[in-house]
Structures are given as C-alpha cells and as structure tokens.
Design the sequence.
C-alpha cells in the first residue's frame, strides 16, 4: 500500500494528464471537449473530496491545526471548483478564448497548489499520520463521491 | 501557511524594471559603436548595470520575494519593509551610479557604492536567512540558495569595484575582479537561479516532462564547482582558464538543449509568447556559451557580444517571458483571495497582440546589437527597437496593475475576512 503522500501525488499526476488531454481536445474542437472536461472535473472532485473528507480531518484532529495549511487548501479548492464550472459554461457558449483563459488561470493555480501540497503538506501529513497511513489510504481509495 | 507577501512586494520590482530598460536603451541610443568593443568604457559599464541591476536583478528579486515564501515556505522577515527599503536604495543607487560614472561626479559614485551595496546586501541577506529555516530542500530551493550566495559575493565584488572608481584607485586586481564579478553574475546568480526555477516552471506551466533526478541533484553544484575553479584559474593560471570555461559551458549548453527538448515534449498545446521566449533563450544560451569559449582564442574581442547573447538573449528572454505569466497571476490570485470572483482571467489581463509585437521588437534589438559589432550603424535602430519593446512591456504591466487597483475600489463578491486574508 502506498503512503498518503504517494497516493495523493499519483492522483495529481493523473489529473495533470487529463488536463493536458482536455486542452488538446479543446484546441482542435471546443464542442468535442465537453466529455473530457466533465471527466477532468469529476477526477478533480474525487481528489478534492479524498482530501477534504478523509485526509484533512485526520490531519486536523491529529495536529490541532484547524486554521492552517488544510484550510488554505480548502479555499483554493473552492477557487478551482469555480473556475472549472466557468470552463463548462464557456464550452456551452462556444467561447474558446474564455475557455483557454480559464484553463490557463486554473493551470497556474493548480500547479502552485499541488506544489505546496506535495512539498509541504503531504510530507507533514505523512509524518504525523504514519501510524494510520494504511487505514487512511484505504478510506480515500474507497470513497464514494458526493 | 498563507505566507504569500503582499502584492506590493514583488510588484514594486516588476513595475519599475522596464523603466530602467528604457533608460539603458536611451543611453545606448546616444552612444557610439565603439562601446561594443570596449567592455570597460563607462558607457558600457553604465548600460550593462542598468540592465543587470535595473532589469535582471529587479525581476529576479521580485520573483524570489514571491517564490521563497510560497514555494519554499521560507518566510522573509518583515518582507514589506525590507523590499521597500532595498528597492528604494537600489533604484537611487543605480541612478547615482549612472550619473556619477558618466559625469565623473565622485560624490555620486560614493553614494552609489553605499546605496547599491546596502540595498543588495539587505535583501539578499534577508532571503538567505529565510532559506536557512527551510526543512525540505527541493532542487529548486537549492538553486535559489546557491544563486543568492553567489549574489552576496558578487555584491561584495561590486562594492570593491565601485569603490575603485570613487576613490580613483584602479588597481591591477580591479580588472580580474571585474571579470569574475561579471561571469559569476551571469552564470552564478542569473544562470543558476533560472535553472533552479526551470525545474519547477517547465512542468508547472507547460506540463513538460519533469527534469531527471540526477540532473536536478547535481547540476547546480557542478556549475558552482566550475565557477569557483574558473575564478582561481583566472587569477593565478590564466592559460588554463579555458578548461574551466568548457566545464561551465558544457552544463549550460546541456541545460539549453534539455529545455528545447522538454518544450518539444510538452503536453500543453498552447504556443504563446512565453514559449517563444524560452526557445529564444535556449538558442541564445547555446550560441553565447560557445562564443564565450571561442572568445578565449581571440583576445576577448567578442566578450561584449557574449554578454549580449547570454545576458540579453538568455537571461532577459526568460525574465520577460515569465513576467507575462507572473504579473497577471499575482493580480488574479490576490484579488481572488480577497473575495473577488468576477474578474478577468489571467489571459485577458494583458494585451496579447502587444506582447507579440514586444517580442518581435526585442528579437530585432538583440540581433541588431549583435551585428552592430560589424556594422556600427545598426546600433541606433537596435536601441530604438529595444526602447520600444521595453515601453510595450511596461504598458502591459501597467494595464494589469490597473485592473487590480480598479477592482479593489469596488466591494468584493464574497466576504473573505473570516479567513483572515488581507
């Protein structure tokens, strides 16, 4: 079983790949990109919930850090959800420029968010939650998205 | 963990940098083509420092102000005040240096020595102290640490050099120190910082394949080793300095080639002006590095051309390209964090058409400067092209800043005060 850090980092990379495919599809034909965009959003949502409903609460309980890194990550998740919804809207309106403007913004926000998680938060989480790592990973893996 | 500095800290540097570029261009406009052959003429020294301090250092320091806390968790003590003071000291110091050296006003050269030295040491030391507390060192953070260490030493050398001009005592050591000061500034401060940041930026912005671990772990130290050896050889065994140059150049050429390949393999299909800048940087670095070695066999006649290719073509290209991403993102990020949701996306903030024209003008200026070595008459139009490209850059930075300032005047869409954001 992979560690918390490995598990969530792999998720990041998978989402990165889908993101790139989504942009490629949208670049050739915006209308055709609706399906893959929905897949991207679904993958991201699953990842967010793995963090927000499993890993973050475990971390917050263990460390007592309620208003710390996890809170900031939640806020950025909210910003990203907002951007992704707007992207779907842009596809429905056939607005290619708007779509790419949003994806560019999302990309940078997402990447610096991921970097903070991978380089700081996940390492911290791994250290504090090492005893429960396997259980937490299993919970994240079997999560049903709301 | 919300440790991003207030937007004024990096913006102060970014918004003023192109102004110094414009000033450098104006100075070159009134210079003559001889300046491209004599690196120690006052005209060259002044123009070079307007660009290396006013453009490069300002952009690098602005970027570090943002990256150190956000990417490395390295909080800079009292960042807003420190940036305010060092930016002011560096700006006035630089202007004093220009005026003092060109008009032979000793008082201003003294002032420049004090302000530039003090301004740099203040901010570089603060950043080094902040990095000391970092627990998890990535390759990029190592790059930042090493580059800042070089910056520290380069500044000490710079103080020594300016002191020589202020006290009218140019020793024989002066020229050796000047040589080391310039090579270390380009490769040690600029080059290493760019390499370190590229490790994050290429995958981050372009979904390019990550750099290999063995590269990331070693390359910064290998280059440092080369630069230190080169210094000793330069001082004591000049005939062998070539070998150290070859060592350094090999790694930079490898970096330039790797960047080119990574861009070919990137997954994001978008080809915007920033991709063009990275490509330009790659080519210029390769040409410039080889010329630096080649120059050894030609009594250093080509050193200014080397400076143009590596300084202008490599370092400046990347700085400009990255500004087009960082500035809009900073504005968006800070506004969004304060609860503003209905704001332009980062693509919509700057004028893309103007950015493309800016790029073309920049390339024309670069080529023009390189070839004015052979055709003196090219210097004037190149300077004009350079000035125009800097004006267009400044325009784009300002319209983005205006979006920030205008948006802040209205009430946010969401009340984020509970989250303690700005």
Sequence:
């Amino acid at each position: 079983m992979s560690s918390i850090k490995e598990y969530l980092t792999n998720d990041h990379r998978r989402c990165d790949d889908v993101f790139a495919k989504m942009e490629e599809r949208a670049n050739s034909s915006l209308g055709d990109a609706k399906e893959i965009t929905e897949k991207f959003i679904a993958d991201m949502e699953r990842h967010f919930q793995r963090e927000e409903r499993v890993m973050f609460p475990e971390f917050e309980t263990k460390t007592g850090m309620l208003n710390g890194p996890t809170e900031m990550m939640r806020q950025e998740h909210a910003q990203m959800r907002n951007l992704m919804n707007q992207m779907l809207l842009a596809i429905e309106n056939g607005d290619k420029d708007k779509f790419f403007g949003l994806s560019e913004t999302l990309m940078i926000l997402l990447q610096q968010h991921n970097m903070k998680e991978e380089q700081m938060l996940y390492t911290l989480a791994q250290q504090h939650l090492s005893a429960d790592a396997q259980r937490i990973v299993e919970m994240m893996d079997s999560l049903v998205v709301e | 963990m919300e440790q991003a500095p207030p937007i004024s800290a990096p913006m102060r540097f970014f918004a003023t940098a192109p102004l110094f570029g414009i000033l450098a261009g104006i100075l070159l406009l009134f210079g003559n083509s001889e300046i491209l052959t004599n690196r120690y003429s006052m005209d060259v020294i002044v123009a070079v420092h307007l660009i290396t301090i006013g453009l490069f250092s300002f952009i690098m320091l602005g970027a570090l102000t943002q990256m150190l806390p956000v990417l490395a968790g390295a909080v800079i003590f009292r960042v807003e005040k420190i940036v305010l003071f060092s930016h002011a000291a560096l700006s006035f110091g630089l202007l004093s240096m220009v005026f003092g050296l060109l008009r032979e006003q000793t008082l201003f050269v003294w002032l420049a020595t004090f302000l530039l030295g003090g301004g740099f040491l203040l901010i570089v030391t603060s950043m080094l102290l902040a990095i000391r507390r970092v627990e998890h060192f990535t390759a990029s953070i190592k790059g930042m640490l090493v580059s800042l260490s070089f910056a520290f030493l380069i500044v000490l050398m710079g103080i020594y050099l300016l002191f020589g001009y202020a006290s009218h005592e140019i020793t024989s050591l002066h020229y050796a120190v000047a040589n080391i000061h310039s090579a270390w500034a380009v490769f040690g401060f600029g080059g290493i910082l760019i390499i370190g940041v590229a490790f994050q930026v290429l995958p981050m912005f372009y979904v390019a394949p990550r750099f290999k671990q063995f590269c990331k772990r070693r390359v910064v130290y290998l280059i440092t080793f080369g630069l230190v050896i080169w210094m000793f050889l330069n001082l004591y065994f000049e005939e062998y300095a070539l070998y150290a140059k070859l060592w350094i150049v090999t790694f930079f050429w490898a970096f330039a080639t790797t960047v080119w390949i990574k861009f070919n393999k990137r997954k994001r299909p978008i080809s915007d002006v920033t991709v063009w800048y990275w490509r330009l940087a790659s080519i210029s670095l390769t040409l410039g590095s080889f010329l630096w070695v080649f120059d050894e066999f030609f009594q250093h006649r080509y050193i200014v051309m080397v400076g143009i290719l590596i300084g202008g073509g490599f370092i400046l290209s990347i700085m400009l390209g990255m500004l087009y991403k960082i500035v809009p993102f900073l504005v968006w990020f800070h506004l969004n964090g304060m609860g503003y949701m209905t704001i332009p996306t980062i693509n919509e903030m700057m004028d893309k058409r103007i950015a493309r024209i800016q790029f073309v003008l920049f390339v024309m200026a670069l080529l023009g400067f390189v070839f004015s070595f052979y055709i003196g008459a090219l210097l004037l139009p190149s300077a004009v092209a350079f000035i125009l490209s800097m004006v267009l850059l400044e325009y784009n930075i300002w319209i983005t800043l205006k979006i920030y300032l205008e948006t802040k005047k209205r009430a946010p869409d969401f009340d984020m005060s509970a989250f303690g954001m700005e």
Summary: Chain B touches chain A at residues 1-2, 70-71, 73, 136, 138, 200, 203-205, 207, 267-270, 325, 329, 332-333, 336-337, 341, 344-348, 419-420 (CB under 8 Å). Chain B has one domain: 8-406. The mean pLDDT of chain B is 89.
